[in-house]
Amino acid sequence: MKRSRYSLLFAALSAALTVAALASYRAISAIASGQGRDDASQKWPDDTLPTREARMLAVPARAYAALAAADSSWRSQYAREYTLDELRARGDGRRTPRQAMQDRVYRYTRSGNRARAIWELERWVGSNPRDADALLSLARLLNETGRAKDAIPRYRQALAIEAEGK
Fold it and tell me: How far is CA 90 from CA 9, 66, 86, 87, in A?
């Protein structure tokens, strides 16, 4: 008995809410389409509905002219076509093998694959034993992974290279 009363109450409230929502939607649609009253009391402040009067954007011609003149001046001074010799001097934009190795080591270290980063550094140091920065990076990674016994000789090797350069 109680269940049926609650069911009927729920159904009645659902129907009432649906009717109220439809009435509200119909009133809002009428206002938006302009069928409602058109007096100022009905409009909200800063209303986003389009108005009947056309709006013209103000174009600050003097400000644009000053910007165009400054841009033209900058382009004539700095923006020019490069000669072939200048382009060759700038390089082709490719990374050097050392930079590519550093990129790979960085990627492996960031992803948590320190073993692969150590392998990359070991391979690089094997072919470039005078690269003190790579030796220090290798020593740091070895130490971070708990291989201090392997890191100490690499650190000493880097210190010896630095001492020879001074």
Answer: 80, 34, 6, 5
Q: How far apart are CA 138 and CA 128, in angstroms?
A: 13
| 53: helix, strand or coil | coil
Question: Smallest Cα–Cα separation from 165: which of 125, 133, 123, 118?
Answer: 133
Q: List pLDDT tens digits, range 6-40.
A: 888 889 999 999 999 998 988 888 777 766 555 55
Report how far residue 48's alpha carbon sits from residue 64's, in angstroms, rounded to the nearest whole number.
29
Q: Which two tokens stand for residue 50?
A: 């389009």
Question: In angstroms, rounded to a whole number, what is the distance separating the alpha carbons of residues 129 and 160?
Answer: 11
User: Other C-beta atoms within 10 Å of 113: how many?
Assistant: 13
Which pLDDT score, from 0 to 100, does residue 76 have?
83
User: Residue 120 and residue 107: Cα distance in Å, rounded?
Assistant: 11
Q: By 3-state DSSP, what share of the chain in percent is helix, strand and coil, each rounded to 5?
A: 70, 0, 30
How many whole angstroms separate alpha carbon 77 and alpha carbon 79? 6
* Rg of the chain on CA atoms, in Å: 37
